[in-house]
Amino acid sequence: MTEGSASAESGAVTVSIVRHVAPEHAAEMIAWVRAGSSLAERNPGFLGAGWVRPGVASDEWHMLYRFADRESLDAWESSSERAWWLGSAQGLVGESRLERRTGIEGWFDEPVERDVQDLRPSPAAPPRWKQAIVIWLTFFPLSLVLGLLLLSTGIHFNVLVRTLITTLVATPIMTYGLLPWMTKRFEWFLKPKAD
Q1: What is the pTM of this model?
Q2: Which of 26, 49, 124, 148 has the greatest count of CB atoms below 10 A from its CB?
Q3: What does the alpha-carbon distance between residue 56 and residue 60 come to, in Å, rounded to a whole number?
């Protein structure tokens, strides 16, 4: 099991796990996943869960669950209910990969698999044009500030060097700081509540 990066920023956290179960145990796996989702949804901050299989004969089960913040996720992951639930699948379920993600970081991409069952209905991904607006609202001011800082040094960089420096500095700031922060602030725009 390798664990992906988790942001220290507060905000919704999505956990992605690839689990392996022999195809002939699909019915037990479905019951086990539903039981886990039922336990998780009783915890404060639970936002939803679901699973995707690449095909009926596949032993891979791609699972997601989402909590409102890191504290809510930690409370669920350290709970006795979750420990009991995980223990109930010993010998049935294997885990090969676990990742935690926050903010925009690719969670808007739609799954390409065909065999999809959601344990809880989840909202549709926001339109790409809305994602583009939020990214631009983040990127433009950051680019402007970085450009002004480079100008203030008094050193005249050619366009290639200036772009290289700006993108090297802007990328981690955008990825780990500004985009998760902006995603949370613009949630009303990206995912408006249904009437």
Answers
A1: 0.47
A2: 49
A3: 10
